[in-house]
Structure to design on (766 residues):
């Protein structure tokens, strides 16, 4: 039952922010690209439930649009990681012990060895700060995570009888990987994907906070925090709400990841 | 017995000195600044941070700026100007010595001026010395400077931090161990942290009231706020976060001085880059900007709107803000006339200060309202100097021009905003050789109107200069007529 509770709580939180992001495409209370200086730094009120920021923008609208930015960046970054990491992992597992396996896995070790946020800062410093470069930077560091996970999951599968049977039946390594290995590591990938997704959101907020993520006028949670920093002593609401948004989203995704793992784990399922 | 008396005497002496120590005011101060100097030679770099630490404190020139921006005698006690306005005879102060003990005489003045105007000089403001034909040391206390043409602003030029007097004996190490004639001498520099100065006991003029001065460098606005609040620093000159000033004002521990500067904050426009080469587009730009919103939003109300490149506190200033009043409908109409009914896209490159970063976001929103899309990129100062100032690779940028009386930059067609107007260049050339005050004033007004009418740049506001200090610190400069933190008259109130 514990697994279920995590799943529901995490899923619920995630759903709230995902739907906020989706709704923001159709409607937001106020246009976040229009400034209203006369109404700057107002606390929560009926007109602005979460108050306004230093340019008089509605913080609720900013958080909704910011959710869109965070989710988009994290989604694409995880997509890059899976899209490249999973085939690499499958290949390495299929060719276990070969030179190719060594090349792929040592390459992964190399990427892993770098502190990811530092490299992200370097990439954005060299190619300019933008949401796209943040996506690429975060995405690159997702590749080895998925490659390793896929390889280790796949290695144990390659020894299974049904894989042997498929080989005897004359299927090639590529076909076996696609038809028999991949479907059986999907559970692992979904769980890891959820965790990586939350890390992606944190990384995006971190990069935006230091000014290397999405550029204005695109709203971003990290930049909202950075903007509010000098005003925290007299306008705490400006930092509180974007901070809560980051906290709750990341918490939600982590709980959901835990819940999913419990749900997929055959041992736990049997126990239930 | 006698032993006892002596002991008693010692005790009372100790008690006396202790009570005197209590009564004596503090004699050291920690002053925070935003930017650390790259090195310590004001005569070979454009970085204003050097003057912020050393001007008047360590280095002095023939003339100097007073706190109100007027030019007063410095190392030159007096001077005579010949009938034709070409020859200046300076009489130097008596008994001036450099911090290494050597005497400051006419040979040092000749050396300093000749070094600054030499062919291979690294001086950042060589134009200040352009008109000098020769410098002669008549006797140890007299220097004669001959100009090729009369120059109405020669004494003003000599007051700049770039024209301070240095000694040939110590010039080799000036970047790390500056030796000047000021009321403070350099003692120590911990790079990345602080610069210490100490009182010059042999100063020729009124001695400094403080014994020790530390300049600390804090560029992060949040750290600046924390440092002042915790009283880690006694004063922050040029406080970076205007939003925090009301809190300091409300706190009896602190005083807040909001002074004027020579910093014209402008939306610099690349006049050579299409479509900004079209004056109609620049005019549209000017009318699209709501100055008051920028002052309120980016500077929290601190700043004076300007309509041209001139400081409002200058007596010759003309208020031309009406030329470029906020009118987005007019702006759209002008854009349509210029052939951009649907607007266009351009770049907006922003250096680190909050006036630029926040002002940039506001301007981008205002320009978007008339159809001009801007792609914002936030740059560090080094990148800004490289790309914008040197590379001229920009559409728009926001920067504050803090040099005093710098309208002359509009006569330099290769300057980064690339304004090329032969009439204006002639006006500036004529101004340089005019010394009649009434005529000069007339020409300056004409110059302000010309650049305003040509909408060379978007004129936003005159930067305010906030200083936050312990309420007991007296004698700080309120205004910033030049980049300087003159501490020679600063003291602690009891």
């Amino acid at each position: 039952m514990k697994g279920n509770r995590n799943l529901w709580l995490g899923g619920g939180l995630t759903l709230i922010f995902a739907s906020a992001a989706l709704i923001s495409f159709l409607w937001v209370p106020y246009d976040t690209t229009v400034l209203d200086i006369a109404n700057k730094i107002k606390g929560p009120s009926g007109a602005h439930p979460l108050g306004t920021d230093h340019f008089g923008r509605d913080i609720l609208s900013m958080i909704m649009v910011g959710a869109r930015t965070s989710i988009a960046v994290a989604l694409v970054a995880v997509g890059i990681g899976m899209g490249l990491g999973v085939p690499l992992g499958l290949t390495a597992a299929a060719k276990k012990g070969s030179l190719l396996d060594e090349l792929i896995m040592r390459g992964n070790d190399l990427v892993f060895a770098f502190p990811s946020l530092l490299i992200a800062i370097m990439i954005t410093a060299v190619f300019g700060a933008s949401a796209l470069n943040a996506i690429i930077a975060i995405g690159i560091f997702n590749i080895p995570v998925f490659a390793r996970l896929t390889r280790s999951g796949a290695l144990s599968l390659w020894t299974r009888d049904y894989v042997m049977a498929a080989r005897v039946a004359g299927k090639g390594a590529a076909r076996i990987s696609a038809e028999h290995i991949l479907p059986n590591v999907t559970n692992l990938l979904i769980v890891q994907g959820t965790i990586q997704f939350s890390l992606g959101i944190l990384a995006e907020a971190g990069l935006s906070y230091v000014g290397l993520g999405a550029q204005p006028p695109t709203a971003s949670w990290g930049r909202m925090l950075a903007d509010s920093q000098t005003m925290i002593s007299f306008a705490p609401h400006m930092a509180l709400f974007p901070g809560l948004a980051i906290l709750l989203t990341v918490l939600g995704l982590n709980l959901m990841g835990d819940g999913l793992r419990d749900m997929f784990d055959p041992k736990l399922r049997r126990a239930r | 017995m006698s032993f006892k008396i002596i002991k008693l005497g010692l005790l009372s002496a100790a008690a006396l000195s202790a009570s005197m120590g209590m009564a004596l005011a503090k004699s050291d101060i920690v002053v925070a600044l935003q930017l650390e100097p790259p090195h310590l030679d004001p005569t070979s770099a454009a970085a204003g941070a050097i003057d912020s630490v050393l001007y008047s404190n360590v280095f002095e020139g023939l003339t100097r700026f007073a706190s109100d921006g007027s030019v007063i005698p410095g190392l030159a006690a007096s001077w005579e100007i010949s009938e034709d306005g070409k020859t200046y005879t300076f009489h130097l102060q008596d008994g001036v010595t450099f911090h290494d003990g050597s005497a400051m005489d006419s040979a040092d003045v000749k050396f300093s001026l000749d070094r600054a105007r030499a062919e291979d000089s690294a001086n950042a403001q060589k134009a200040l010395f352009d008109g000098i034909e020769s410098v002669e040391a008549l006797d140890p206390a007299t220097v004669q400077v001959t100009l090729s043409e009369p120059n109405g602003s020669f004494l003003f030029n000599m007051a700049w931090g770039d024209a301070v007097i240095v000694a040939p004996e110590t010039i080799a190490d000036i970047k790390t161990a500056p030796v000047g004639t000021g009321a403070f001498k350099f003692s120590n520099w911990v790079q990345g942290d602080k610069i210490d100065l100490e009182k010059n006991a042999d100063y020729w003029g009124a001695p400094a009231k403080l014994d020790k001065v530390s300049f600390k460098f804090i560029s992060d606005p949040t750290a600046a706020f924390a440092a002042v609040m915790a009283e880690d620093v006694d004063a922050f000159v040029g406080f970076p976060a205007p939003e925090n000033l009301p809190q300091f004002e409300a706190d009896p521990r602190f005083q807040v001085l909001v002074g004027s500067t020579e910093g014209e904050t402008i939306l610099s426009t690349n006049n050579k880059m299409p479509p900004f080469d079209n004056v109609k587009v620049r005019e549209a730009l000017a009318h699209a900007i709501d100055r008051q919103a920028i002052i309120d939003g980016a500077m929290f109300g601190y700043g004076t709107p300007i309509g041209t490149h001139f400081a409002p506190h200058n007596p010759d200033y003309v208020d031309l803000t009406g030329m470029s009043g906020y009118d987005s409908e007019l702006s759209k109409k002008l854009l349509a006339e210029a052939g951009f009914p649907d607007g266009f896209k351009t770049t907006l490159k922003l250096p680190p200060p909050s006036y630029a970063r926040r002002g940039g976001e506001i301007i981008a929103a205002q320009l978007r309202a008339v159809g001009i899309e801007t792609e914002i990129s936030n740059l560090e100062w080094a990148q800004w100097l490289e790309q914008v100032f040197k590379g001229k690779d920009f559409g728009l940028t926001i920067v504050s021009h803090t040099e005093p009386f710098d309208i002359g930059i509009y006569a330099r067609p290769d300057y980064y905003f690339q304004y090329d107007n032969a009439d204006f260049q002639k006006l500036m050339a004529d101004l340089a050789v005019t010394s009649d005050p009434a005529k000069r004033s007339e020409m300056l007004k004409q110059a302000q109107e010309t650049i305003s009418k040509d909408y060379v740049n978007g004129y936003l506001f005159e930067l305010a200069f906030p200083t936050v200090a312990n309420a007991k610190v007296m004698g700080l400069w309120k205004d910033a007529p030049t980049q300087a933190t003159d501490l020679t008259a600063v003291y602690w109130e009891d």
